[in-house]
Amino acid sequence: MGLESQIQDTVFLTTLDKAVNWGRKNSLWPMPMGISCCAIEMMATLCSRYDLARFGSERLSYSPRQADLMIVAGTLTWKMAPVVRKIYDQMPEPKWVIAMGACLATGGMYDSYSVVQGLHRIIPVDQYALGCPPRPENLLNAIMKIQEQVSRETVAEPSGED
Ligand code: SF4
To answer: Looking at ligand 1, which residue's alpha carbon is closest to its atom 8?
Structure first.
């Protein structure tokens, strides 16, 4: 038996990016930022019927230092916006954001001076789960899209000039 066929049968080869991204995408630790009614559907997504644990994301992190996925759910007022931004800033890189609900996409029905007309005005948004409120399946879909996004990440950036 040649060396090449022995290696094919016994050695699993991958790249650093694929190995790290596989671990990351299957163990996202969400920071639940429930700020109004959409948060009820976020809670439903965690329960046994929808079972977020299937995606390895059931471990919610109430400390931003130990979270890599912020799920913002609800109506964002300008009064609350600095708090959301501060918590986002406290999360270490790499990190991703899901905006849940029509209010966070466009302000929803609140075309008002007091409501932020889209979460993207405060922090970068990776995925939207749309609806008023979005169903748990919609949030699961957004999480699966984040997983796809994580799969495409490059782990080690080439170092710049010293
Ligand atoms: S999108 Fe609808 S359910 Fe969600 S926070 Fe806005 S009003 Fe509430």
So the answer is: 37
